[in-house]
## 1
Amino acid sequence: MTVVVAILIVAVIVIVGFSTLMMVSTDVQIAGNYGSTQKALFSAEAGVNEALSRLRADSANPITDAHPTSAGWSAFIGTEVKAQGRGYDPTNALHSLFSSLQSVLDYTVRIRHQTDSAGNLLYWGDADGDGDYERNTTTGSQIYLISSYGLSSGSNRTIEVEAARKPPIAVPAALTVNAATTIQGSSTSVIGNDTCGGADKPGIVTGQAVSTVTTNGNPTISGSTPIVHTDTPLNVQALIDTYKTEANFTYHVEGATHTGMNWGTPVWGADEDATDPSTCSVRNLVYYNTKTTAGVPTDISLTGGSTGCGLLLIEGDAILHGDFSWNGIVLVSGSVTFTGGGNKNVTGALASGGSTDADLVGGNANIIYCSTAVAAQTANRPLDVLSWKDVR
């Protein structure tokens, strides 16, 4: 009996030990599979990030879209053999292959133009002119479909991302307003003619009746016809909300005056004519929040020769005077008082979103539309990621 019991106990111990060993082995295998799956996911994410980086206009190793109007265009990142497994055809003139900038992670990326169900190219832009971007088939920047295939120890993961370069802000005129506006002074100009090489714009677009735009003292207003007309008001607040989180200069003030600010210096031509466009290689994004703790907008006054280049975003009212000069776009959610004080101007565009307070432009204050200055504000910014999907 003792021998039999001892044999049974040994048998139980062996069975339990074997079962434990099998459980441990299974757990190790599960952990290993999970680890390799996660590495494959990280590789796929890295492939997406390389594609996003190289699609930027200012990339040191750019991927060029040589066929922007073709639904058949594709660019691949990776080795030729693996790229062929993802649809790359070296004999297809619409296909191009780029080596990855790294060799540690294993991924292959395919970049295509996104299309709708009918095969039309999709764009990311402001098709209806309200200041909000949406998918459409006519206006804006191409939407790219980025498919990244990551591999690790036999595991694979696929991520699909929709992304688009930021389209130029769709300013409809040199000066866009949404309140009663006065342009005054014989040396004041609002010029919609694009001397920077693009299409002319109206001098002024208003969200109110044309009769709410008045002049005093024979200022100059020029541009495409009608020079002053009514259109859907630009959603200035939506644009401010879109870009303010990217600001490299942010201020929270309440009814303040800032003197002699410098966020870049516009460069003038030889004659420094106030009605000629300036140029600038600097691109800053300046954001002023003038709201009180209760959320009520106040104002900011920029004076004393304040200058800048880029995007100027002001939540509240703006008072611009004393040789104020800007190259780029000025967006003000409230009213604008721009009263110059020297041969200075805004080159690009100025838009005011307030619908109740009056706007005033006068006293050597010149607003000169320039497509180059407008487009430059978004050209080198990171792409907008419209969707991100793990498709396994």
## 2
Amino acid sequence: MKNTRYIFDEQKYTPEGMVSVSQIQTFLSCRKKWEYSYIENIRPRVERSYLTIGKLCHKGMQVAMQNAWKDKEAGLDTSFEYGFYKSWMEAGFRAMEEEHRKYMAENDFLKEEMLDVEKMLDDAEDVFEQAYLEFKPWNYDVLTIKKDGKLIPALELHFKIPCPPTKGLHGYIDAILIDKTTGFIWCTDYKFRKSLAPDEDEANNIQNAVYAYACKKMGIPITGTMTWQHVNTPAAVPTLLKNGTVSRAKIKTTWETYLQFCLDHDLDPENYREEMQEKLADIEWYRATYEYRNDVTLTRIWNQCIAPVAKQIKSAHGKKAVNFRSLYPWNCKMCQYQSLCQAELRDYDADQVRKLMYTEYTKNK
């Protein structure tokens, strides 16, 4: 693809003054929460930066698909039969390990914390391997685009599109992939979650609607969006009973994990296959949700949902702006600013709460 007019130019722009989907979502949920985050630039005070299994798995998928793209560009056959997907997966593992090493080097941990921190990497690699093989990356080609005269893969694609009266809306698209079988082009978002969201939620997925609109502005003829979500916990390990057999209880694991456990304990998996393979088959580990939004739908979502909020956000920066609180149990229960918000409402020492529990960020994207 040669139309790169709306691909983010790091030499020309910085994200300051722009809006993002996450900022719009925060504003819609509670304007006071938005003010804390985007005007005061405060965050809960934590002892260290935060790393999750989902972030590690995202990194693994990004680097694995980058290597797949490189092999394709080199003229190699990237189908399953040639087995290059194994080297892509290994590259993903290495990237995850490097990300984890960096996290370890930048933060101090108590001795009793180390086991959990190290286990996080082990769990993330288990989740990534399972998700990667279920995703079947050999079935896709990464879309190639042209930026600054160079061909690059459409992975972690940073875009900027006009969004007056702000300086623009920017975001990162995980991947734009071409299905080798159908030729369909999918704007793809990876999600690693505790539980899988139902398909019907996708119609209200404002992030994917905006990303599809951005693809339209960039001239990328996507078929639609694909939200590919996977459980963010590894398959459970079966229990070895006192009589030397493996428990046949239904746990959240895969038949492959169960089979390997049998082999590791010198037990014949065929003694368990008929019962356990069927018992574990209906456990859902991943779900791909596809959404087709035509140009009319994308334009209406932009004009009726995004553009009006961007205007309100611009106005909310004014000195006379009153950013009200959306005080609802379901809205406040998980809010990171709940302590400060309640201190202000109850006439507690809010300045002390702000000082003790929050820290200011000088840059907010």
## 3
Amino acid sequence: MNWYVIYTKPRWEKKVADRLEKSGIEVYCPMMTQIKQWSDRKKKVETPLIPSYVFVNVEEKNRNDVFDVPGVVRYLFWLGKPAIVRDSEIETMQNWLSAPNDYEVSVDRWKKGDNVILESGPFATQSALVQEVKPNHYVLILESLGCVLKVRKKNDDGVS
């Protein structure tokens, strides 16, 4: 069985994942907790890590079963074929999302355009391209996972 990426209607990721799971399909919808600010309050909200995408683990012959669920739009394609995500990439996302938020990444020597291998944190051993260097953060492209990572720089006093 392979992990495939399905594209959902906007803001339907959780609904689609729940319905697929109820129909017996193995599904992974990576979620992260964010603090949202409104004019009168702040609230912790669980949002999809990758908006409009859900990962499904199905056999090739059963790929069309996902279309029985409302909210599924299509499969994500790569080079004319349905995109397949490796088990190790799914595990990396799961490890990253379950990691405590107090890890540090030291990247002071990086410049825009550098190709780097991350040495610590949840993305350890992943290669990344430095896309942007700002005074308080870096933006890295993790090509193997198809995502962009924003890493805060650590201050000289040790506070990130």
